[in-house]
Amino acid sequence: MVGSASTDLAVKEAQLRAVLAGVPDPEIPVLSIVDLGIVREVSDDCVALTPTYSGCPATHVIELATREALDRAGFENVSIKIVLSPAWSTSMISEAGHKKLREYGISPPVDRPGPAECPRCSSQRTQEVSRFGSTPCKALWRCGDCQEPFDHFKCH
Amino acid sequence: MAVENNQNLFSALIQLGDDALILSQRLCEWSGHAPTLELDISLSNLALDLVGQATLLLNYAGEVEGTGRNGDTLAYRRDHNEFRNCLIVEQPNGDFGQTVLRHFFYSAYALPMYQGLAKSTDEHLAAIAEKAIKELRYHFEYSSGWVIRLGDGTEESRTRMLKALDWLWRFIDDMFVEDAAWSDLVDANVVPSRKGLREEFDATVLDVLSRAGLELPAQVWPITGGREGRHSEHLSLLLAEMQVLSRAHPEAAW
Ligand SMILES: [Zn+2]
Fold first, then answer.
1. In chain B, what are the domains?
2. 20 to 30 Å CA-CA from A121: which of A27, A147, B150, B213?
3. Does A131 contact B at CB distance below 8 Å?
4. ipTM exceeding 0.90?
């Protein structure tokens, strides 16, 4: 009996994760909130999310979108809580997330020092143009080979 | 005793939150006016980080106070003499050089401050600080980079930086003023000692200014009082603009 109860729980958690995997980040919609690594905890009655930046205006939108997605899937009684610690970092973006970012034209964050990789031609002959880009999480770079400007997800 | 602790914590949270809020509002004034598009975006992003930190701190202050106020009511319904920010953050922007020098001084103070707060025995404050550190590191790199570039730039940029330095220097001591409530929290390992941070701050400032080729100004008479609610007229004008909509339409929602 204990086994089956924990199986039910595992099934429910998997269902919840599947719902969350369908919630896009409003600023980079190609990424889901799961890819982004901001889903901190999934339990039977609660989903914990963590903000990317303290002032990220997307946090409210994400919370609302998650609420809607959960309600639509029949999980009205699963609550959402926001946790601050441990603080989100770009290392929490999943491998799948990195791939999606590249395909979308955004150079994913890198943990090593040195240049960002051009998402178009994979060149590393690239240069930072501005620390601050179109959203708080991105910097503006330029490729020395294909000459294209691109966004680079800041390592944070 | 618990109530007294809460009053101390409220007072500290207001000081930290007001610093971030007022500086954020100042930076917002650059939106659409910065020298280049990249700088415009960067200053708005710095402002966004700060308003995020202010929201977390002031909401928490409201919770600790327990009388039903939240971040919004604390930001929009207090008068100038109830604000506890340090004086440097309310100073007018001046030119880009003065703005970035002010930001350098603030982040050179705030980064070690939040590194200390991240070790707070108050878990929620520690969590807020842990997030803020990552942001403030950027603020420090950005502003110190520009201070060096402008100080070591043209004759014009150097002259302007010296003028900004001469003006802002008098507000440094005010950032480090520690009242009795703050000292009590230091003893309880809730916040780091401001006096204890001064040495690191001085070393950082000396290093960056010397790389910028800027000499320290002559000794000036320091102006203090921000932490006690004694502000310059600049704060009243800033608040008038920041609060006008909320005060004119008190219960408006959209
Ligand atoms: Zn390229």
1. 3-248 (1.20.1260.10)
2. A27
3. yes
4. no
